[in-house]
Write a structure and sequence with these properties.
By secondary structure, the chain is α/β, with parallel strands linked by helices. It folds into two domains: about 240 residues, P-loop containing nucleotide triphosphate hydrolases (Rossmann fold, 3-Layer(aba) Sandwich), CATH 3.40.50.300; about 70 residues, BMC (bacterial microcompartment) domain (Alpha-Beta Plaits, 2-Layer Sandwich), CATH 3.30.70.1710. The chain has eleven helices and 13 strands. Helix 8 crosses helix 11. Bound molecules: adenosine-5'-triphosphate. The site of adenosine-5'-triphosphate (ATP) has 12 residues, from strand 2 and helix 1.
Length: about 325
Amino acid sequence: MNRLHEVPADADIVTVRGLSKSYGDRVAVDHLDLDVAAGEVLGLIGANGAGKTTTVECIQGLRRPDAGTVRVLGLDPVRDADRVRQLVGSQLQSSALPDRLRVSEAIELFSTRRAKDADGLVERFGLSTKLTSHFGSMSGGEQQRLFLVLALLNQPRLVILDELTQGLDPAARREVWASVAQLRDAGTTVLLVTHELDEAEVLCDRVVAIRSGRVLDAGTPAELVARHAGIATTRFGVHTADPAPIVRELLGVRGVHDVTAAPGGSSTQITVRGERSSIAHVGAWLADRGDIPADLRVDVPDLEAALLTLLDGPDVLEPATSVLTGAHR
Ligand code: ATP
């Protein structure tokens, strides 16, 4: 029997508890907890130097933790390094492939006996016409899509993508995002390391935000938005010099944040803040009044706003363990 099949299909993909790792005096990872559930795209988010790569290297068995436990499909990545290597697909760094290597040669080089349907993968990631191209002649987006093909080639149970779109132009980033979205839709388990907040917003089912090697908070994008950026802002102008009756009426529905009379006194800017649903209430109230302002503007908080607040804010010192284990999709 193939020993790989002994790994239970429903095992948690990654479980990290109390992981610590220092380089000399420099603490890179500090009592970090992390779970990756089967079928989810988990984003590990933090600024440069936050400890993301060190964490992922411990998960891959490339570094030995100073303290804590790491399990990948129930295996210890240091002790069971060979088996873990077979089960985890990692994205390469650009420098890992020589410029003269052709796409078909790279695929041959990275195929193990577990490799399956390379042609299908090449087609899925739009590289069918590039099989004879040299790596060095491909665009940044094409190179990253080749890395995705190589990471998936040997049917991994977990794919680790580290700074996937760094240095790509906006169009190429979107190409690569579409490829990762395909993985997500196919139920592939992905650990995505990034400091790009918009990337996390587009791709992640769940996010773990870290700073100085510690978890600040973790949850689904909706949970993080609710906890750290739950307020929507709606601004609009009304044609009146006396906003008092309007404000009184609006106050009956929700809070009015700001009222500013325009120069000349003919119109007034009103800013309303509240939960996301407040936008609908304001819209309905304005429609009722028959006064549809041309300058209605709405700022809805998103994951990017939540992560900015979180990563730039004070430490959340409550242990975040309780919110780490995410729902399986
Ligand atoms: P980046 O986004 O810049 O890659 P990161 O979040 O991945 O950062 P790490 O690379 O894990 O962070 O680094 C965490 C800390 O450990 C940083 O302060 C870094 O300077 C330090 N560090 C990382 N690798 C080493 C090393 N081999 N020797 C000494 N210090 C290191």
